[in-house]
Amino acid sequence: MCLSPALQSGEDIVSHQLELQSILHGVHQRYAGRQGRYNKHDTARLRYIKNTAFPGLRFGKMAPTSENAVLAEGAAEAEDGAMLLVRMQCPASVDGHYWSELLVDAGALYVSLSDGGRGTDAEQPIYHAHPPGESSAQLLERLPAETTPGHLTPVWSNTQLEVGFAPDVDVEATLLLAAAVAGETPPRFEVELLGARDWVSQVQSDWAPVELAGCLRILFPWHADSAGEGSCGALPPALQLQPGMAFGTGEHATTQLCVRGVHSLLAGGRLTGCDAMLDFGSGSGVVSRANAVDNGMADRFVAVQPAEEAPEEYELVVANILARTLVQLQQPTLSSRVAAGGTLLLSGIWGEAQAAEVEAAFAPDFEGFERSWQDGWVVISARRRR
User: Fold this and answer.
1) Fewer CB within 10 Å: C terminus or N terminus of the chain?
2) 304 and 370 in one domain?
3) Per-residue pLDDT at 8
4) According to the model, what pLDDT value does residue 301 have?
């Protein structure tokens, strides 16, 4: 269902505006001064705003009035482990992380931020990476700064928030309070009452095996490795991953593009005589170290830090990182690792502009650039000049 919060006492908000201004200003200033971290001690300020300006709001059992009646009735009968799932669009003038902190302090069980344009032409990739010589990650892609005092740049221009609350929380009152602290109009939101469920089993059932380029399957321990037919006939070999706090499950477009690129080179005979390749990138290294052992391939895999590696050349080098990082690593790190006539595969590149930038950076040492696309992402292949 979709709700637009009805202000129970709009006149009260106006009458308390001057009283709230100093509090809101202080919250905004402290937030902006810490570069995006919301002070947990501001919880007391939130309570003060609630008790002073909105004494009628209830933050416990949901008041069975207005649009909340149906949800309140369902919440009263909810099983242990049930949850209210709230979806809302973050106002464009406020940083999504700011709303996240406000809602957590107001009682949210969790808050998830995502790009409202994901999967469309309006998608806005935003990344962090470690520039050379920097110990902390820096934001590489960001929208133009907002000019509103005390407000930070939005994460996305269309940031979607998914928020979980206990089933007896008054969602309307909670969002009204958070909007007051942010100095914003209460947003429209959707609420769904989720019954108790075995989340582990559900995640496992929703996670299907991934087949890459008809030559490899990615499985988790709960997938049965039974005989059958794949997209190219008999099922290809399987690589089993153990679930954990890491990334790299084979589902992302850049991973699939790189695997297809390597498979195409093998099928075309361009890697004849190639007995070793270099996969440059800490993510793949972290994931691969453990899985090489789990899948009985530890003797075919070596993981090293760049500073420890001898300056060898390889017939094939694959780097799936970020466009700007690839440009920064062009010389001497990446180009010097590719043997004369060897192949370089580059991904982590989004859109035409980034693809052109990467190709321009590598053009002095490479030729025969080719691109393959998937969901807005691209893998670039090129040959090292002889």
Assistant:
1) C
2) yes
3) 37
4) 79
Confirm whether 350 is domain-assigned.
Answer: yes
Residue-level pLDDT at 18: 40
Same domain, 183 and 251: no
Position 158 in a domain: yes
Instruction: Name the CA dihedral angle for 242, 244, 245, 249, rounded to a multiple of 10 degrees.
Output: 40
Residues 19 and 80 grouped into a single domain? yes
What pLDDT does residue 198 have?
A: 81
Tell me the C-alpha distance between 265 and 72, whole Å. Answer: 60
Q: pTM here?
A: 0.60
Give SS3 for 20. helix
Instruction: Judge if 190 and 248 occupy the same domain.
Output: no
| pLDDT attached to residue 351 | 92
Q: Rounded to an integer, what is the distance from CA 329 to the centroid of its chain?
A: 24
In contact, 353 and 363? CB cutoff 8 Å: no
Buried b (16+ CB within 10 A) or exposed e, 239-267: bebeeeeeebebebbbbbbbbbbbbebee
Mean pLDDT by 10 residues, the chain (386 residues): 36 41 48 42 52 48 41 51 87 76 84 84 68 54 41 66 88 81 79 83 82 83 63 71 72 90 89 84 67 82 71 90 90 90 95 95 97 95 95
What CA–CA distance (Å, rounded) separates 212 from 255?
9
255 with 190, same domain: the answer is no
| CA angle 59–62–63, rounded 5-degree value | 105
Contacts of 114 (CB under 8 A, 6+ apart): 159, 160, 162
The answer to whether residue 334 is domain-embedded is yes
How far is the C-alpha of 230 from the C-alpha of 211, rounded, in Å?
8
Interatomic CA distance for residues 383 and 317, integer angstroms: 10
Show the tokens assigned to 312: 């060898």
* Closest C-alpha among 110, 87, 102 to residue 164: 110
169 and 79 in one domain? yes
> Which residues span the domain enclosing 330?
244-384
Into how many domains does the chain fold? 2
Asked if residue 31 belongs to a domain, the reply is yes
